[in-house]
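Researcher: Last one for today. Full complex below.
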Amino acid sequence: MRAAGWSARSLALAVMVGAGWGCDRARSLDPARGPAPEPVTFNRHIAPIVFHDCAPCHRPGEAGPFSLLSYADVRQRAEEVARVTAARYMPPWPPEPGYGEFAGQRRLTDEQVALIQRWVSEGAVEGGGAMLPPRPQFGEGWQLGPPDLVLTMPQPFTVPAEGTDVFRNFVLSVPVSGARYVRAMELRPGDKKVVHHANVLLDRTASARRLDARDPEPGFGGMDVELESESFEPDSHFLFWKPGTAAVTEPEGMAWRLDGGTDVVLNMHLQPSGKAEMIQPTVGLYFTDTPPTRHPMLVQLEHDEAIDIAPGQKDFVVTDHYELPVDVEVLGVYPHAHYLGKQVEAFATLPDGTRKGLIRINDWDFNWQAVYRCLRPVPLPKGTTIQMRITYDNSADNVRNPSQPPRRVRAGNRSSDEMGHLWIQVLPREAGDRWLLQEAAMRRRLEKSPGDFVAHANLGAALEARGRPQEAVGHYREALRRRPQSAAVLNNLGAVLQSADQLDEALEIYRAAVRAEPDHVSARYNLGNALAAKGAFGEAVPHFREVVRLRADDLMARNNLGAALVAAGRSEEAIPHLRRVLAADPGSLNAHYNLGRALALRGDLAGAAAHFEQAVRIDPGDALSLKSLRETRDRLRKAN
Amino acid sequence: MRWALSGLLVAVAAAGPPGRATPVRLALIDLDGRRANPLETPGVPFTVFVFTRTDCPISNRYAPELSRLHERFARAGVAFWLVYADPAEPVEAIRRHLEEYGYPFGALRDPQHNLVRMTQARVTPEAAVFVAGPSGTPEVNPGVPLRSRSQRDRGAGPRLVYTGRIDDRYVSFGRTRAAPTTHDLERVLEALLAGGAVAPRTTPAIGCFIPPLQ
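Model: Here's the assembly. Have a good evening.
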């Protein structure tokens, strides 16, 4: 039986750093060398900076509006290059130095900025060709070669020519069956001149699909998306695209799981370019057969309930803290605020009192938000407190303020609302530690928001996973007091009760879940299984049928449908389903066994024996298959 | 302060023989390579030049706003011209650019930076508004002349009354408002059409630098 482990985490954004990964090249210019004594030339001094820090985006087909690949390119823009680098507008790299070290850093050193100034003031000289470093090479097409699977948005979306920025979410279905492990992902967003950044989320509950259906245009609006999530995987990975991002390759042992029936949701920030632009993003996925051995987790710091910023307020502060219940390594951080955000800071206070900066952005700019992946994992021992501090400016002086004149602002998904989130990707020593991290996070959330639905629901799931079903039931019931119709929580509660052999009560709860949400696949499946466990096979059949109607590639549900039909004496109906399971997964022990039984009931003893043999070949110790094979062979012998 | 009156005096003096009240001599060329000076077109009281380039995301983002301004003011006698000042931009790319962004008005090139010097424009997009001299449109109040050095020139030729941004949406590099709070170019045109005296003024324009001639 499939475990009904579920965690109703409110996932604002599941994200991942792309930028940096693989960009960790050594600085071409050694600042220790000091300012160059000889005249500054392009070939010797400027080209290494430009090729490393500008060219990745400033080249044909990329987000930069013009190319910076040669002396002529840069000479022509020399004054502009000097201005924007001095202003630190380019290359865009908001984190302050000294507060965490990140992969793919594109911050110029003060020496580099000064060198560019000098070069321009001295007349932007080219210099001797011998000093020119090789022109940077960038691969064409998919960066990691042809992907194993390409997802394409079914319909293009037209970004209007003008107006405010567009925040749009697109749902891409994933045509895989069973589970695959993704080792790398590349997003090709379409026209990079209009796509400012994109978060990739995974939706197992079809909730994004329902939002999409309500919106006549492709996709649906919203700056942030909340999705129900049934497990940590793969929400514990940052899947994020920004200009200059190549493929997002996961570290060794950290592939993420992608299940059939999951939808990939692209949460995109689009900027009108002056003419209508059609985009049709594609996502390339690269699989591996190796399941993950290291299991990270995303911990969220936030205090959205505290966000209530009066118009004109210039220094509104939101803080949160979280105490680590286990040792972890920090792998990356993703701060998120909207247009009023001014300064973002996160730091860790270790048990011995040492303070470690995790990130600091002094001039927060929503447009350049990004996931920052640590250059090296940052070890933090149990008992460390992680603190977040975000300040907001809701005055008219904040030119980015979307409301002029300013108005009262609270937390929300629209660009005129605010948020203050800090996601930290941590890697505990063991996968099981994630439940301790989750429990601590949800207990903290209850401190901030007593009675919070999500906190109770998730705490229930964490306690259930930690083998404390009685406490889990208590928190599920608390969550249901807030939202009695939550199919997901009802389903979880049913699963705990069923595990505790309270089958009748579990059945009633599952029924309530299916009433609340008839398309809730997991609740249907569990209801079918619970009925089958009661011996009510005929009653179980329609529920399994509903699951395979909603998810044609759910092989477990189809197998169970076959099994229930066989048990209900309806072998003829069962056979096509079981054959379909075996066509997709010839190694399914259960389907071979069930099909063997169905064929035996029909009188096809030879066919039945063949499938029992297959089952025994798959698991030579499977007692049921061995017994059935013996009996079928006996009957065959007698018949002959 | 990057736009001083003295700079304009020099530019104008260079453009026409000193002491003669002739219209400003512009050496712009059209997309077919012919010399063009829209300021000499009779019967056009106001002319707006907007510096642009094919690959500047900031000026491109203003294409719909410029179309709207054109629609509002063209019938009232305002001529609109895009000016491509980078001699390296091929004419074909310019034609494609006009087509793609659906500009409802014409384009000229300024490969010698004649208009760039005259207006002291620095970036794209940057607008320059000229008022025709009395010979062109006697019924229009000529506004305040810029060439204050010589009263003889008052009202003689086209006068530059505005250079600067289209609106204040872009505040500086990396600082952008969700929507503009001041529509500078539109206000200038409204004032001109209302017939009041328009004091010459400049505003800081944010955009892509116009590269100096090599």
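Residues 623-639 of chain A form the longest helix (17 residues). DSSP finds 17 helices and 22 strands in chain A.
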